[in-house]
Amino acid sequence: MPLGHHVIGCMNFISVLLSIPVISAGIWLSMGAVNSCFKLFQWPIIILGILILLVGLAGLIGGFWRITWLLVVSLIAMFALIVLLSVLIGFIYMVSMKGSGHPEPSRAYLEYSLQDFSSFLRQRVQKSYKWDRIRTCLSATSICPKLNQTFPIALDFFNAHLSPIQSGCCKPPTQCGFQFVSPTNWIGAVNVSADTDCQQWSNVPDTLCYSCDSCKAGLLANLKVDWLKADICLLLAFIGLIIAYLTSCCLRNGKTESILARYKQGDSYT
């Protein structure tokens, strides 16, 4: 019987360890110039990871110190957290599925359209009061200015594999027909009516195309790559938690059946 409690305690210790990659995934999503400007999944992941850690510690204490009620409560709570984790994993995947770049003639980089992304993500960047804060944050980074040192001539720039956010925020859309002066300086648009973003473009360093829909799309395209990486990490932790949880439940059920069997044997002798 003590062995069963210790094994369950070990399974909860594994759950504690598995909470670390969950918390780490949330912290990782909070880091970096782009991620720090747009917070969506970071805190839900971190909070869920902390709850898994606390419940795992409770189960660990209940298992090693044979506190049955604490063990039962931790099993119920862990089940709820595993369900929440599965929902979060599925939701992140669903909203990150849509949205990919479109090639342009004589360009190595891709261009992005906001309409390609899920309505959930579009709503997070289309409202002006939300985007104003994000735009201010992005304009304060070195994402665009560093392009001027990296690609001083047009041929190098056109053959560059820009990140989605650089493609969307640091230059005007290709179809506008601007002429290259530098990566963040363009003149003489020949087709301003091709896209509403053409009129949003400005050579002012703090403006550029930060108000463009292409910038919003580039931001989402940049972020969804990180979200999918974090989602894989969460999925692996989820699989580990399922194995640990089922093992704990099987041991718990085995202990219960053993107690009932001894109880019945006691009745048969009376």
UniProtKB/TrEMBL annotation:
Give the transmembrane ranges: 6-29, 41-61, 67-95, 227-246
Q: Name one GO cellular component term.
A: membrane
- GO terms (BP aspect): auxin-activated signaling pathway
Q: How does it sit in the membrane?
A: Multi-pass membrane protein
Q: Which InterPro entries has this protein been placed in?
A: TET_plant, Tetraspanin/Peripherin
Q: Does the keyword Membrane apply?
A: yes
Q: What is its main location?
A: membrane
> According to its UniProt record, where is this protein located?
Membrane
Q: Give start-end of the signal peptide.
A: none
- Which UniProt keyword terms apply here? Membrane, Transmembrane, Transmembrane helix
Q: Which Pfam families match?
A: Tetraspanin
| Homology family | Belongs to the tetraspanin (TM4SF) family.
Q: What is this protein called?
A: Protein TORNADO 2-like
